[in-house]
Amino acid sequence: MIFLAAINEYDMVLEEDASTNRFLESLKLWKALSASDFFKGVPFILFLNKSDLFQNKLAKAPLSEIFADWEDYIKQPHIAKLELFEQGWRFLGTQYEKHFSGKSFSTHVTCAVDTQSCVKVWAAVQEELFKRAMNDSNLM
Fold it and tell me: What is the reported pLDDT for 92?
């Protein structure tokens, strides 16, 4: 299952419902899909997309204004040393991790308009899926 989430939308609301945060709606869908019996045993691949827009937005719309646990997250010793962009996407990734009910998933930060980056990420995903298939069939 490939799940694409626009991480720059953490402070935005749905067009059709101005009271629902887009990021929280995405988490809700993620949780429902990963808990579904239909996808039981299926590996999930999470693409945190629009990283360029996310990086530009962080200074203008701090994550602390949206997420109460942001300050606690960045105080962790292994997190505090990272730059703000990396702290931010890792934090949002942990939100998906907290709401995941499936077997396994991996996270990739992407920018769909950066074709070179997409090629590299897709190659990594293909290799990951190949290794999983080999392990699952006891060929590795």
Answer: 96
